[in-house]
Fold this sequence. Notes:
The structure is a single chain. By secondary structure, the chain is α/β, with parallel strands linked by helices. The chain folds into two domains: 12-88 and 162-235, HAD superfamily/HAD-like (Rossmann fold), CATH 3.40.50; 93-158, Hypothetical Protein Ta0175, Chain: A, domain 2 (Alpha-Beta Complex), CATH 3.90.1070. Helix content is 31%, strand content 18%. It contains eight helices and eleven strands. Strands 2-1-9-10-11 form a five-stranded parallel sheet. A three-stranded antiparallel sheet has the order 3-4-5, sandwiched between helices. Helix 1 packs parallel to helix 8 (227-235). The chain is globular, with a radius of gyration of 17 Å. The model has no long low-confidence stretch (mean pLDDT 97).
Amino acid sequence: MQWTPEGWMPKAVAVDIDGTITDKNKKIHLEAIESLRRIEDAGIPVILATGNVRAITYGLWRFIGASGPMVCENGGVVWHPEWDAPIVRADGARARKAANFLAERLRIDASGITTNAWRESEWCLFPDEDLEAITNLISESDYSDLSVIKTGFAIHLMEPQLSKAQGLQVALDKLGISAEDVLAIGDAPNDISMFEYVGHSIAVGGSFEELAAVADVVSPFPHGDTFKPLVDSILS
């Protein structure tokens, strides 16, 4: 199959983590990791672009051997260990207050998912909470400007200026790479902005329908199984 445009080679690859470089059970897909290392060995930096927190992203970044900046918390935190400090693009306190507001009116757990302990710019509720009720209540409240986005592992409450596209723009400015030279790979609605921003996008098999609708290519292979044939094609 034709994974990328004829004669086009990405100068960087922005890749989601959960649901993308994992298997159907959300465990790390070893072949996907090996493929990302091959991309790095070819001189193409890998940028992890995720809804996950900086601490977890850094651990994976380090053990993969990635070299690009990390775009964490859906663009809320952008960081590379060589920088003086992370670029934190929002204060997550207001999103947490919104979670408490919701808990007073709905039967939800405001403490949310475990990784909230390290969140710097947003707040995440459990993915099985009532998304429709949460969205409706937020839209009618003082927090109506917040984005409510469901992914495979959480419901994210985010300030309106946060998105993977905006975070990725910060990272690419640091690298001196144009968005049109970037390949993005993902699986969930929080990847939509990134797909619309970069030069070429691939939704892994098993991705959310909303993302598949805007992807340039939809992989016939589920989740992490996408990476070996994709990288074989790029490097050939």
